Amino acid sequence: MIRTVLGELSPAALGICDSHDHLFFRSALLAGQELDDAAAALAEVEEFAAAGGQAIVQWTPHGLGRRVEELPGISTQTGVSLIAATGLHRAEHYPEGFVAKVRPRLAEIFRDELIVGIGNSSVRAGLIKVAGGFHRLDEHARYVLEAAAEAHRGTGAPIAIHHELGSAADAVLDLLVDRLAVPASSVVLGHLNRFPDSRAHLDLARRGAWLAFDGPSRANNATDPHLLSCLAALIDAGYGDRLLLGGDTTTAKARGATGEGPGMSFLLTTLRPRITKEFGADMADAIFRRNPARAFAW
Questions:
Q1: Do residues 250 and 162 make contact, with C-beta atoms less than 8 angstroms apart?
Q2: Fewer Cβ atoms within 10 Å of its own Cβ: the N or the C terminal residue of the chain?
Q3: Does 191 belong to an annotated binding site?
Q4: What GO terms are given for molecular function (predicted)?
């Protein structure tokens, strides 16, 4: 099953999916650009639905303004399935003292949000979102990844990873898969577009993890021209069945419906036609529908 904010869903019913995005997000690093407007979030999902979108996987973890109480209503109004996340981001995204406060019971928090509900709501998380470091795993990243592995063992929930500038994905697999025995098929490696090294991507694909590319965005525009080339290298090598694509909208300015864009709908109005033209309709269907249905299933 796939766990959405409205309950459990058959993977076959997930549909056309944005595999990495945010409707609500509040970070200490993005002051003044918080995603904290319910009306704007609804407008963004409505625009995504109008472009043919049917599901959005939210990667906003514990403590970063998820506003889960808004999600069931948005899902019901738009008909778009929403998946919420538990987990913990890089320490610098949080106010001073927050990480130290939650650290002693991190695995327990993850499990509770997956099994019982997030906060005082009945909304349960559908994945664990955590983060690596820049080209290495620091002590914070290792501790959080270990907590994620413990929560995974008790639930089977998939683990999605933020990679700082797309780096250290190999170190994450060394820890999660090789040392902590999390199946590679339960690991989603994010932001790989930010490190457009096809040789590195092929090495990751051989290890069996899911490969998530996101964007385009102003923050990572320098890597956008490499997206199709990176996808082509993986598809040509036979790994088209491991690819995911998301928008990763993290600021109000980046929304399509109420900001400067490109927004979530860009995935379907612009990138999907390009992928269809380059690789065929069947591959586009795999990236936007079939692969997410497998990657985010418990």
A1: no
A2: N
A3: yes
A4: hydrolase activity; zinc ion binding
Q: For residue 18, what is the DSSP state?
A: E
Alpha-helical runs (H) found in the chain: 38-50, 71-78, 98-102, 106-115, 139-155, 169-173, 198-206, 227-236, 266, 272-279, 281-285, 291-295
The span from the CA of 284 to the CA of 277, in Å, is 9
Sign of CA pseudo-dihedral 193, 291, 68, 138:
negative
Task: Answer whether the bond into residue 262 is a cis peptide, omega within 30°.
Answer: yes
List, in order of start, the domains of the chain with CATH numbers. 2-295 (3.20.20.140)
To the question of whether residue 20 is assigned a binding role by annotation, the answer is yes
What is residue 25's DSSP assignment? Answer: B
**With left for phi above 0 and alpha for psi between -120 and 50, is residue 247 left, alpha or beta?**
alpha
CB 93 within 8 A of CB 27: yes
Residue 62 labeled ligand binder: no
Nearest to 47 by CA among 230, 249, 192: 249
pLDDT tens for each residue of 75-133: 999 999 999 999 999 999 999 999 999 999 999 999 999 999 999 899 999 999 999 99
Instruction: Give the closest residue to 7 by CA, choosing from 63, 95, 70, 72.
Output: 72
Positive or negative, the Cα torsion across 123, 128, 134, 137?
positive
pLDDT for residue 52: 98
* 248 annotated among ligand-binding-site residues: yes
